[in-house]
Design brief:
Layout (H helix, E strand, L loop, with lengths): L1 H16 L16 H28 L8 H7 L12 H16 L18 H24 L10 H10 L11 H20 L12 H23 L4 E4 L18 E4 L6 H25 L1 H6 L3 H13 L22 H25 L1
Antiparallel strand pairs: 1-2
Helix pairs in contact: 3-4, 4-5, 4-7, 4-9, 5-6, 5-8, 5-9, 6-7, 8-9, 8-12, 9-11, 9-12, 11-12
Length: 364
Amino acid sequence: MAANAMANNRTRALVEKSRDSMGRFIHLYDPRTWKEKGLIWTAGLLLVTYIVVVLVLGVIWSFEPEPFDVRAYAMSLTNDDAGQLVTGWTTTATAIGIVDNLLNKPGGYLRNDIFPPGVYLDNIPEWEFGVLTQLRDTARILRNDFSRSQSQSAEDRNLADAQTFFNNDANKWLLPAAETRYEEGAEQLRLYMMRLADANDQDGQFFARADNLAAFLQESNVRLGGYTQRLAASVGQAQVNVGLAGDPAAEQSTPADSERQVQTPWLEIDNVFFETRGYAWALLQMLKAVEIDFRSVLEDKNALPSIRQIIRELEGAQGTLSTRFIVLNGRGFGLFPNHSLVLASYLSRANAAMLDLRRLLQQG
């Protein structure tokens, strides 16, 4: 009798609790066995564990790789045969090293991820795109300038394929994935590099000339100038239209205001910052390699101090953020720092030094 009474009381309590504010019955799940309760606790524990793992991996995968030693990396690709370190080997090996870091850093290549935590990350995918931009520029210069004796000479077959592979859509994740294409591009660079070191293969060449280096610097000048302007626009700035300046007969396709206000949208400020950091990171590696392969040209022009100053500025641009993953956007002369303007300052000095070096190569 007592047991029946307790059961009736429990049923009555459940019925009362299952009524909503309008007096209608609602369904309540009431696990009564340890097995049912254990399933709920297990599911909850798995969910919490999954969230913690995703958060931890997201933090680990958000660290930018450190710059690598281009001379040591180039040597590692020779199988300890120093005789393979011919002109152009270090520059080509460094481009391969950039691909290696892009694809094999913690978390791998994240820009095309469709699963957590990669799909939720924002900063590192933008950094990857900056690196990829510089890699594409390098592949184009290798194909059109470094490997050709003159403009009418035939292009290198491996470098032509490499540029095509590196131009694959950075967001593509299937059939084929972007990583697959970039690995194929790196393999084409390896084939070209092997031909450079083969004394019996006269077809593979790298021409370390002043005009070729000037072409590389000009490409970098344009990129750095664009990135600097985008960084400076983090606080908004008035820009005068100078598109037709210096040429009274110049024309443009459509009319434009003589002055306009330019400002990077608030939600894109960190994207621009990390993309620029990625480009500067890759450019730093390439300039260290260029210093080795073009050393005789730089010494002849007394330009070694110039390229080392550019490298110094780009190294400064890789400084660690005090707020780690957060890009602060204080006003130009405000109380709080503006990381975009700090980065723009380093790149502006590097760009100015690069302009001087290019002028020295062309006229010195």
